[in-house]
Amino acid sequence: MIELENVSKSFTLHNQGSAVIPVMERVNLAVAAGECVGLVGASGAGKSTLMRVIYGNYLAASGRVMVGDLDVAQAEPRQIIALRRDTLGYVSQFLRVVPRVAALDVVAEPLLAVGTPIEAARDKAASLLAELNIPERLWSLSPTTFSGGEQQRVNIARGFAYDYPALLLDEPTASLDAKNRATVLRLIEGAKSRGAAIIGIFHDEAARDQVCDSFIDVSAFSPQVAA
Ligand SMILES: Nc1ncnc2c1ncn2[C@@H]1O[C@H](COP(=O)(O)OP(=O)(O)OP(=O)(O)O)[C@@H](O)[C@H]1O
Fold this sequence. Notes:
Blueprint lengths: L1 E12 L5 E13 L4 E5 L6 H9 L6 E6 L2 E2 L5 H10 L1 E4 L11 H11 L4 H14 L16 H14 L4 E5 L7 H16 L3 E5 L3 H7 L2 E4 L5 H4 L1
Parallel strand pairs: 3-8, 3-9, 6-7, 7-8
Antiparallel strand pairs: 1-2, 1-4, 4-5
Helix pairs in contact: 3-4, 3-5, 4-5
The protein binds adenosine-5'-triphosphate (ATP).
Protein name: Phosphonate C-P lyase system protein PhnL
Pfam family, one: ABC_tran
Family: Belongs to the ABC transporter superfamily.
């Protein structure tokens, strides 16, 4: 479902004399439906960068970044938008909060985007918010004023509202209490068993061992090692 072939990424620092900083070279990885692969490696190794390359936020310098039958490295913006709507979900560490949109609608939005009727979308959103222990009195409020942990749980609910065939999870259990952490791990297991291909970054080793089927050490692709 997700397949990277010889992917390289470097950053060009335009404000520093166009210095080119290579981050990773010749990344190869494959994630099948129903499988969860954990990205590991030292801080700064490029785990988040690799995720952003797959999501199409950063452009790969070379190589193929296949998600389903789309090569993200070659795709046009409209294809990336369709991919993010229909195929590839991304739970980042922080919720990008839109002022004045109620938490319930923030969570329901990915379902509405694929044509789910509004009542069904809101029902699913409500059940996820309840499962993640967001008090019902908050559902009609914008998450702008929510605590960090509440915002993270709204973000997770949003990421799991629609059954994406592929999911990127960046630290989905960071700063959650034991009960919510268990819920998130259950959601991940559920997504795997319905066939989602998942790539995750987990600093929480116990969580990582529970849900990941294999690991990729991103440090192995750093240019110094590969050279
Ligand atoms: N937008 C950017 N411009 C320039 N350099 C960047 C950019 N984003 C990341 N980098 C560099 O790429 C390298 C990899 O960063 P990245 O955030 O992917 O590491 P990470 O493995 O996710 O680290 P951590 O575990 O600390 O979150 C770092 O050296 C970082 O400074």
